[in-house]
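Reviewers of the previous submission asked for a worked example of the structure-prediction workflow described in the proposal, so we include one complete record here. The input consisted solely of the amino acid sequence. No template or homolog information was supplied to the procedure at any stage.
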Amino acid sequence: MDVRTVGVIGAGVMGRGVAQNLAQTQHQVILVDVNDATLESAREEIYQSVRFHGLFKKTEQRETPDAVLQRITFTTNYELLQDADFVIENATEKWDIKREIYPKIDAICPEHCVFAANTSAISITRIGSVTKRAPQILGMHFMNPVPMKPVVEVIRGYHTSEATIATAKSLLANMGKEGIVVNDAPGFVSNRVLMLTINEAIFLVQDQVASAEEVDRIFKTCFGHKMGPLETADLIGLDTILYSIDVLYESFNDSKYRPCPLLKKMVDAGLHGKKNGQGFYTYRSTTL
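From that input alone, the workflow returned the following structure tokens.
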């Protein structure tokens, strides 16, 4: 299927990255959020991101930020998704929130439209169960920052058809990315491993075995990782990390996924990482 218009639900960190990447690869984008202020913030951030992307990628053909933004419709009106060939949902990593979205877009979008959940932990099969198009539901776990990451974890639900997988891989190829297909299971591959690593790193800080800086430095210098686990946690968002670990804990009923109490305390205190300026590290433009 030729995908021309893509709906992107959620204008948070991941949603705006997906929208930017799509618009920069000549797709028409409908970016939907329930909050006008979030949409305006997304517009400004995409403008700045495209501007800096052009400065650093001097060998690529560059477009102005305004030219890229012209391909994005910013709206709070879900009805505009009636023209979408493909929808990528990026809502908060909570089942109760995602559960409300899918029946709504199922009634609005055309029959051929494919739905992809940008999730790191929630079951794709479960999402398919609240729609009338389970064969057209799959997962797309994008990494942050979306425009800079070349690979996406693609998740096949119980009913996902091969045609849907092919459409998703074709769309990703047009976005300059490769899709690696895995089967549906809590946390899939990446987060089942990554969340345990981050959670254990937080336990190390809580137990005063090492500081956050020391934990991260060991991973970067000993293993050659570009970022340590706690820097990664700040980049993803500590609230998102907690949601993901909670899903793993509830799904497996296994104590090895028990969220670290320090993580819960930091989230309760409003320390969500880079997106609001304070997590294990302090960032510029804090809103606290």
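The first helix runs from residue 13 to 24. We consider this example representative of the routine output the project will generate in years two and three.
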